[in-house]
Write a sequence for this structure.
């Protein structure tokens, strides 16, 4: 009987919208809760980062788009989430926003999380062995091949 009551209580709490779950206030969830954007401010459309590209390239293009507000570190921090999607957004949301005391601490964590994208660059042997999948068009294969080849960094012997 006690077990059934426990299950029923849990289901009711779920229906009521998470009562009993701490840390759901705006101040707890927001990275910069005290920063308000000016009324009428419309952030530019950011290039979206999904966790698969070069994180430093993303941060450079992100900062470049912050014309007029980019010098305010708190606004840079607040708006970064709007440039993330898929795995990158999931990573960001799973973080405790209170741990980031400044822009550098936040982007250092970001770089640490996604650095593997740039450390595992393909070598010439990988590029030479790329094969077209039977289900893909030649155009798709060529586009993918060019994208992979552009990531290749020469080894010491090639330089």
């Amino acid at each position: 009987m006690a077990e059934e009551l426990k299950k029923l209580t849990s289901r009711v709490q779920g229906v009521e919208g998470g009562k009993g779950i701490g840390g759901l206030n705006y101040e707890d969830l927001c990275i910069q809760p005290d920063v308000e954007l000016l009324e009428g401010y419309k952030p530019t459309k950011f290039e979206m980062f999904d966790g698969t590209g070069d994180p430093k390239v993303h941060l450079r293009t992100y900062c470049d788009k912050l014309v007029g507000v980019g010098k305010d570190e708190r606004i840079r921090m607040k708006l970064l989430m709007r440039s993330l999607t898929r795995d990158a957004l999931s990573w960001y949301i799973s973080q405790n926003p209170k741990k980031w005391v400044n822009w550098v601490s936040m982007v250092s964590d970001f770089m640490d999380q996604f650095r593997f994208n740039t450390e595992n660059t393909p070598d010439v042997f990988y590029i030479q062995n790329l094969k077209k999948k039977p289900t893909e068009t030649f155009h798709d294969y060529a586009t993918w091949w060019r994208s992979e080849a552009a990531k290749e960094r020469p080894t010491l012997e090639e330089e």
The chain has a mean pLDDT of 78. The two ends are 75 Å apart (CA to CA).
